[in-house]
Amino acid sequence: xxxxxxxxxxxxxxxxxxxxxxxxxxxxxxxxxxxxxxxxxxxxxxxxxxxxxxxxxxxxxxxxxxxxxxxxxxxxxxxxxxxxxxxxxxxxxxxxxxxxxxxxxxxxxxxxxxxxxxxxxxxxxxxxxxxxxxxxxxxxxxxxxxxxxxxxxxxxxxxxxxxxxxxxxxxxxxxxxxxxxxxxxxxxxxxxxxxxxxxxxxxxxxxxxxxxxxxxxxxxxxxxxxxxxxxxxxxxxxxxxxxxxxxxxxxxxxxxxxxxxxxxxxxxxxxxxxxxxxxxxxxxxxxxxxxxxxxxxxxxxxxxxxxxxxxxxxxxxxxxxxxxxxxxx
Length: 329
Ligand code: SAM
Ligand code: SF4
Fold this sequence. Notes:
The protein has helices at residues 43-55, 74-82, 102-112, 126-133, 138-150, 170-180, 199-202, 206-216, 280-285, 290-300, 324-327, and strands at 11-15, 60-64, 92-97, 116-120, 154-160, 183-187, 219-221, 231-235, 241-245, 258-261, 266-268, 276-278. The chain is an alpha/beta fold. The protein has one domain (11-327): Alpha-Beta Barrel (TIM Barrel). Helix 1 runs parallel beside helix 2 (74-82) and helix 3 (102-112) packs parallel to helix 5 (138-150). The protein is globular, with a radius of gyration of 19 Å. The relative contact order is 0.17. The structure holds S-adenosylmethionine and iron/sulfur cluster. Residues 20, 26-27, 64-65, 67, 96-98, 120, 158, 160, 187, 189-190, 192, 324-325, 328-329 line the site of S-adenosylmethionine.
């Protein structure tokens, strides 16, 4: 599948639930109204949509959310998708998680064919962790991370850079990741959804962070790319990769190879735009997948060139009204 700008769409991110057991301050308001369960695609329907995308050329699927591991029976979907790994099918099945449920699921994820996961962790300080996630306990996430490592999963830690909150901790996180063999990716906050706080107070440009880090660490350029928005360096002292996701300071849209499905079957062609396609209606309209595939192709033909994220004091409104937990980032 090629979009109008010649980009080949090979990567599908699927949000399997909008719910979460945490309430990270940059992601959600404390009081959230979640979708009624009846609105959600069933796990079988999610698998059917995934299968259609694979037939149309998708080679990588990432499960996300909300918190993907809080969806009941999510492992049945992971197993079903895992069975599609291999030539002509998926090259990679992975997920992004907050780690709280990983201790329970790590071995089963590996057994299903998952080899790499992203775990979100913004701080190594228990009090800060509680403040950022509102409801979380650092120990539980760390237990999950180490269970995943023990199960053989490669781990990338995702850290949202928050001004005045964790900006003094990046050195420690780099050293900690180096010690345990994890890659690290720093993310700029993106203006998505109402969150009870002022985003201009949270926003920290990674260009500044990178300049600061390069005083302590030797950051070596690498051409390692995942087709995604992260730009990587290798930290010479630890040998691990460090990524920067900078939607605000640098635009990453030219090489975008992905689309995002919500748990209700809405396909977003861009994280930062509102245009979307409903796949649930064609999915449910017939048992045959012809209408579904046609709807997917039509949606890809509308993929926009890029996003219009802006965070400034004049426009202190989210660039898109939906929260990151709807599309999973
Ligand atoms: N619950 C899982 C987790 O936290 O990893 C998966 C979903 S979460 C929405 C995916 C990623 O988006 C996390 O790394 C999170 O830190 C990030 N995120 C959430 N809201 C964000 C925002 N407004 N700006 C930048 N990153 C955000
Ligand atoms: Fe939940 Fe992930 Fe959002 Fe945090 S970032 S509230 S863990 S969905």
